[in-house]
Amino acid sequence: MKKKILIVEDNKDSLEILGLRVTAIGYQVIKARNSKEAITYAEAEGPDLIFMDMGLPDVDGVKTTATLKQNPKTSRIPVVALTAWMSELWRDKASRVGIVSYVLKPVSPQTLKETIEEYTRGSLRPML
Prior knowledge:
The chain is α/β, with parallel strands linked by helices and 128 residues long. It is built from 5 helices and 5 strands, in the order E-H-E-H-E-H-E-H-E-H.
């Protein structure tokens, strides 16, 4: 069974590109455009990993992650921050709420693959 990756990103183009890249690597993609959808999909789908945009339109990625970490259904899902900028202040806030890592946008396919493998415990077997 394919591992599920939840991508939380409010920019439609970025969401499409990331979704295509993650699908091409061989994972199932779930897409959320804001904090509310992220929480709903995380609870319903139980993804193996969440890529969380920090600048969401409703509630920022740090607060969204904090909400996910307080919920027993979603607290164990690793969250990787997706951001175009990362200041020390954000990095500190992110690590305090349980964000395990962060990747800078735009994300290269190689970085995406390595990050997914690192946080979903191992790589996929090649499709024959």
